[in-house]
Amino acid sequence: MSPDVHGGRAKCLQRLIRLxxxxxxxxxxxxxxxxxxxKGQLPDMKAILAPFGPQPLLSVRPSSQDPDWGGxxxxxxxxxxxxxxxxxxxxxxxxxxETLYLRFVQTYAVSVARLDPEAFDFPHLGPADALxxxxxxxxxEADEPFPQDVTTQLTEVLRSMARAWDxxxxxxxxxxxxxxxxxxxxxxxxxxxxxxxxxxSGTGLIHFINEDTGVPQVRGRYRSQSQQRDAxxxxxxxxxTKDPRGPALEDIAPDIFAQLIRFGDLARTRLRxxxxxxxxxxxxxxxxxxAVRVQRSSRALxxxxxxxxxxxxxxxxxxxxxxxxxxxxxxxxxxxxxTAARDVIVRGIAxxxxxxxGRIVLSANEAQASAARGExxxxxxxxxxxxxxxxxxxxxxxxxxxxxxxxHAAVIGRGLGVPxxxxxxxxxxxxxxxWIEAPGGRRFNVGDTITVDGTTGAVxxxxxxxxxxxxxxAFQTLLSWADAVRDIGVRANADTPKDAQTAKNFMAEGIxxxxxxxxxxxxxRIGVMREMIFAGTADxxxxxxxxxxxxxxxxxxxxxSIMEGRPVCIRLFDMxxxxxxxxxxSGQRDLAEQLDLPLSTVVERMQGLSExxxxxxxxxxxxxxxxxxxxxxxxRAIFEATARAWGRGMPVQPEIMIPLISAVREVxxxxxxxxxxxxxxxxxxxxxxxxxxxxxxxxxRAALRAGDIAQFTDFLSFGTNDLTQMTYGLSRDDAxxxxxxxxxxxxxPEDPFxxxxxxGVGELLAIGAMRGxxxxxxxxxxxxxxxxxxxxxxxxxxxxxxxxxxxxxxxxPAARLSAAQLTL
Length: 824
Ligand code: PEP
Ligand code: MG
What we know:
Elements: H1 8-18, E1 26-29, H2 31-38, H3 45-49, E2 58-64, E3 75-78, H4 84-92, H5 94-112, H6 127-142, H7 150-166, H8 168-176, E4 185-191, E5 202-209, E6 216-224, H9 249-252, H10 254-270, E7 275-282, E8 285-293, H11 298-310, H12 316-322, H13 328-331, E9 335-336, E10 344-347, E11 349-352, E12 355-361, H14 364-372, E13 377-381, H15 389-394, E14 397-400, H16 408-416, E15 420-422, E16 428-430, E17 435-438, E18 442-445, E19 449-453, E20 458-461, E21 466-467, H17 473-485, E22 489-493, H18 497-505, E23 511-515, H19 526-534, H20 538-563, E24 568-571, H21 585-595, H22 599-609, H23 621-626, H24 628-647, E25 655-658, H25 664-685, E26 692-697, H26 700-704, H27 706-709, E27 715-718, H28 720-728, H29 736-744, H30 761-775, E28 780-783, H31 791-799, E29 804-807, H32 812-823
Parallel strand pairs: 12-13, 13-14, 14-15, 22-23, 22-29, 23-24, 24-25, 25-26, 26-27, 27-28, 28-29
Antiparallel strand pairs: 1-4, 2-3, 2-4, 5-6, 5-7, 7-8, 9-21, 10-20, 11-15, 12-19, 16-17, 17-18, 19-20
Bound molecules: phosphoenolpyruvate (PEP) and magnesium ion.
Phosphoenolpyruvate (PEP) binds near residues 515, 574, 721, 722 and 785.
């Protein structure tokens, strides 16, 4: 039996049997059998039922390849019918037998026959009446009597569980946990061990770690005279270990408790995992029904993997392999600084932890468009539907007006690790008008910045100070093991000193992309940038640049000092003008005020600057060539900051990168100017620093001409955001509008701004890398688009012999882990 054929649970049960644990008779159905079942081809029911004897009572549980991928809920008491009732009543008592039968009718009606749960809820009736009412209800709702034949019952159970696995929500949820599209489901049919009746009988769960922290601790619960699923409810449960607050299993059945502890140890060392054991005691005899990997938080996941390796149960490499990189995101959540000033606009249910800030968007398409522009957004919806999943993926946080902890938004938010607040019912939303309104009539428009605190349920105006995520010892240990095996570098995209600090905390090896124009997104600073863009004459512009120079010098000095000698790659300005200019009348009015110009002049000037297609217009190196003094100011700021760092005993060698290159002459011209300014600063400061020059390969032509370009550059960094945009001819800003339709109809397998298109864009990367290296074998190759932290992109870059990937600081740990896993 293999987990790839029958699923993890079936495989595990087989191992428990081999370890001589008392497991009831079990039959496993393979993925193939279940798939056929979903399509209507039923398995050989006679063969399945043969080992169980006449009038069996059975349970069916899901057995997916990886238990984390979930599956339909277990169904118990299959086989209960009118004939069985008196026989069972003799064994366990009339009320108990009726209760058990009632449960089965209810479960079958709701989960198998898909009838309305409310029609089977009889809170005020005793078991006998409720059973009668449930059977009547079944007949009325389903137009047929409740099935009596065990073969029919089991057939329908198997079919409904097989179909549930095929549902859209189940598929999306498991895919978010890394399951492939065609992941299979196995099913396990097991003889029911009765946990009600004579002697000590009951059912429980036990495991041996704290599932939040991962530290050793006996946890779980036990209930006398109850069926398995009751054991999950805490009411009436016994403690497991001796406890001053009440009776414990250890008191009433010490031998059985000791057996459980022994089985737990055995499972940990022989199954090499922390297992949760589900057990039944039937008249003082222990049965082990099942063991599944303990569900655990990401923090516990890391802790357990490291502890198992440290105890010699698994090798370190396996510990590295056991932690899915995507699960780290939960550990890396920022929190709103508890000491920060908070402007809470509304509260809802804290549905997925962490806090995130972004601009309001009201549709999934807008969220995708924001992500493609590299902008953070918060998706605000009345409630989310499966159609929204890509938008949720693209958003930094999700806020809904309706819904609870198990609403679509909450479940998906947790699955994706996206901070989420749901059920903020005091909020009003007007999609057409493009605004939301909080209590007190406070209105926020699309594009306004808010913060969602999924840990507390608060929604705040603006961007309060955040506390960075803390990395515990186990996390650091695991990543140090990952670093020991990884063979590709991981740097961070960091624009500000704060980002750089995060990057360093996450042990990025350097900064792979500092988007210098982002240093001016800040509310106070954007004004200077706008002044520069608006400068009417060269003299005016020079005056603004003189003010910009010290700001930039300080910025770069701060980056050098935080990164403590690690490489810092600074990209010269790449400013699509529309990103820096106000887009509505009130913004234009503010600007007119700030520049002390009449509104009409501002409007006229903006018309003069407006471009039909700003992403293909006056941006990147084109500004640098057309208005040389801008890049000259930046170069001087970088070199002066370098000289200052040297003065402080830190001999840094900055890396300067030119954006949006499409012709080798652009590189040649900029290089000449940078060399000249470097020489001037060396002369003026007496510091003999060096710098590295590189090019961002983000136009198809730059990739094709990488051979020429490499003559003048030390490194080539592939900017796959623009390269994707230009390879597809697909606007980063507008693709969200039709991306869902495209993916749904299979035109693209995925949004290429999220998943690197290995076929097309990948080919340009491969051509660029090869041609660059033909000219210069030691040219350093890297990727710095949003794809840089994703596993497929890292795998591709490794295969192409790239030196490093660069990704947003929060993705650095996952990228380090992915890179290590790819070598193992
Ligand atoms: C890119 O285009 O991939 C890139 C990193 O630059 P930006 O996202 O700033 O355009
Ligand atoms: Mg770019």
